[in-house]
Amino acid sequence: MNPTAIIAEDEATLRHQLVEQLGQLWPELNVVAEAADGIAALRLLSEHRPDILFLDIQMPGATGLEVARQVGSRSRVVFVTAYDEHAVAAFEQGAVDYVLKPVTPARLFTTVQRLKERLASPPPRLDAVLQAVAPAPPRAYLRWINASVGQNLRLITVDEILYFQADNKYTSVVTADGEALIRKPLKELADELDPAQFWQIHRSTMVSVAAIAGVARDFRGRMVVRLKGRSETLQVSDSYTHLFRQM
Q1: Do both 157 and 208 map to the same domain?
Q2: Is the pTM of this model over 0.85?
Q3: Closest Cα partner for 65 from 50, 55, 75?
Q4: Does residue 218 share a domain with residue 156?
Q5: Please, how many CA atoms are within 13 Å of residue 7, restricted to the half-sphere of its CB?
Q6: Which residue of 70, 112, 134, 218 has the lowest C-beta tally within 10 Å?
Q7: Rounded Cα gap, residues 78 and 125, in angstroms
């Protein structure tokens, strides 16, 4: 029996182009169905159980990655993508193959040859592929801290904090209405805070970007940070002056 395939691609022009080029490069391949979204692809997968599934990674309804999770080892998957980093990761981890948009006949010919060679063996499971291709979950940065104010413990959200300053075994947490102390070293805080929200400007100081009013030079020519609504300035080490080149 001739091998069967489903093409799942939300761009109609590209979908028709794939069908046409596959017909020229592999006349024996029977494209049994086409899908314009991930939900339709899942339904057609169960209905036809094709030998090969061409899957666009970015589709409405359900992404190509979500569809691939349901494939298991039922079909050989070829990822269709505009994103080279996704495609390369998938291929290197053992996916049958990938094609990049816009699809060229030369690249599709290579894919066809590889598919023909592998039809005799069972389709590989895609667990490792999906783990490599799936976007990493967003990192969870620190959103609040518990700090000591005298004998009391205070919960401070990071949005309230103007800057952190190392102080011997402690770190001072400075807000608009006062200071508090925590036992966490600045180096550990730097690993837990969003680097887009807090900049380290000195080995002993991290400042909230939102709290920066500007930069200036002190009487010795050293760069200092001016803060919004505060009189004190914060010294900037030479190794961190590059952060303020656009100011």
Answers
A1: yes
A2: no
A3: 55
A4: yes
A5: 22
A6: 218
A7: 13
